[in-house]
Amino acid sequence: MNRLLRRYLAPALVFVAVLAVWEFFVRAFGIQGFLLPPPSEVVRTVSAEWPVVWPAGLFTLREALGGLFGGSIAAIAVAFAVSRWSTIRVGVQPLAVAAGSAPIIALAPITNQWFGITNPVSKMAVVAVMVFFPVMINMVRGLTDVGGAKVELMNSLAAPDFATLWKVRLPNSLPYLLSALRVAVALSLIGAVVTEYFGGSRAALGVYISQQAGLTRMAEAWAGIVVATLLGAGLQLLVMGAERVLIPWHPSRRLTPA
Amino acid sequence: MTSVMVSLRGVDKVFPRRKGASTVALEGIDLEIRAGDFVSLLGPSGCGKSTLLRIVGDLLEPTAGTVTVNGKSPSRARHDRDYGMVFQQATLLEWRRVLGNVALPLEVTGMAEPQRSERAREMLKLVELVEFADHYPWQLSGGMQQRVAIARALTLEPSLLLMDEPFGALDEMTRERMQMELMRIWQETQTTVLFVTHSIPEAVFLSTQVVVMTPRPGRVAGIVDIDLPQPRVFETREETKYFDKLVEVREVLRAEEE
């Protein structure tokens, strides 16, 4: 009971406290609604704008997921090749690290030109490139950081390479892949929403937020941000659920210390 | 007449290092291991005992000399699954439960269910861990993990069990219990054992023959037959002859140092 309290009640209290301070601050100093609306007004606007904002969120979610899947699958495929042939690794690794530290979101105006501003592919492309590098780098690490003893064990059993891959390297890579996906789902929403700021379909969340902000309708803009946050939290929960199913054996999931 | 399980003739192992220098790990090793024997390779670190074990197990290739196992090349023997390997660390796959770990070699050789689980369960009975079949490795103590590793090494009924300091990471009490356990398993399975250790009492208590090795370069300093009565029991360690054998092994080691 005590543990449950600490786990759920404490964060809930902090959350409520932050909102309360925000509300108080706005009211006490008479801050104008077009600068920073109080949370109570944002909540009202979310429910009033829901018929517009929620479909816009789903539209953007589709772009984020499309890019996430495309980028992750490409990253996993490349990771297999890179971990299998060290010559490829030597060529690819420095490039991947350099590209991983580039501000990929800067590609947004270019992909908007390439694929057409209202075409969801223009957003998916940015998202795919954003998630590609963290997923690939982690996946390579997961496939190769196996430990010499496990490889020796499989060798002593005269196990063929695909058995070592399937029974040792792949399960070993799952925690690495899932922790990369946690980062990647957050990146995917950032990529989709921000690329929409540079222009996109009228049905998209990023377009909605930037238009409302441009009209100084701040409560509406904030409502859009609230929806984006809900979607991000939902995706995080999905990844955590996947961890529960795929790596119940991992130290991060153990209920009692080893 | 007893048959020869392992035969080494003039085995050298040289590890190349940078700038043309090289380390001679083993030099002129001649050794014969009879089927059914328990042979320890004993010596200080750096004497090449683990290297020698790996050459017998075909995890390393000798630079010179010939090795036969069961009258075959080590590579042939490995592909015939004549070996069981136990390492210093239990090297269990942490994503598999205990039963799945023991069944790993059977999966690699393609044995189908339900025979596979039955066989794995039999092996767990041999090491007295049947009730832990559904546990994850991290839920077991170090000694229990090592017993799982021994069960795994024995599932394919290898004619030669190779053990590389298997109890080196265990505390003294656990270690003595594991030695008793290993003696019982050796009696039951009639497997030939090649055992690497740097503990003189461990080598004398377990072995029918102790091969004393000295470092730089790794050579065989002498072979001591341990004709203590079988089966070895708790009281073996209290016999005068046991102490005589300790002294004999020590003197072979000391003679080399002078």
What characteristics describe this protein?
heterodimer; A: 258 residues; mainly alpha; MetI-like fold; 2 domains; 9 helices; 80% helix; globular; B: 258 residues; alpha/beta; Rossmann fold; three-stranded antiparallel sheet
Can you tell me the residue ranges of chain A where pLDDT is under 50 for at least 5 consecutive residues? none
Mind telling me which CATH architecture of one domain in chain B this is? 3-Layer(aba) Sandwich
Distance from N terminus to C terminus of chain A (CA atoms, Å) equals 23 Å
Calculate Rg of chain A over CA atoms: 22 Å
Mean pLDDT of chain A: 90
Reported by name, the CATH topology of one domain in chain B is Rossmann fold
Can you put this structure into words, describing what you see?
The complex is a heterodimer of chains A (258) and B (258). Chain A is mainly alpha-helical and 258 residues long. Chain A folds into two domains: 1-31; 33-253, Orthogonal Bundle (MetI-like fold). Chain A has nine helices and no strands. In chain A, α2 (39-84) crosses α9 and α8 (205-214) runs antiparallel to α9. Chain B has 258 residues and is an alpha/beta fold. Chain B has a domain at 1-82 and 188-258: P-loop containing nucleotide triphosphate hydrolases (Rossmann fold, 3-Layer(aba) Sandwich), CATH 3.40.50. Chain B has eight helices and nine strands. In chain B, the strands form two sheets. A six-stranded mixed beta sheet of chain B has the order 5-6-7-3-8-9, with helices on both faces. A three-stranded antiparallel beta sheet of chain B has the order 2-1-4, with helices on one face. In chain B, β6 (160-164), α6 and β7 form a beta-alpha-beta unit. Classes of the chains: A mainly alpha (258), B alpha/beta (258). Chain A binds chain B through residues 147, 149-150, 152-159, 163, 167-168, 171-172, 174, 247, 249-251, 254, 258, and chain B through 57, 59, 78-79, 81, 83-85, 87, 89, 91, 93-96, 104-105, 107-109, 136, 138-139, 156, 162.
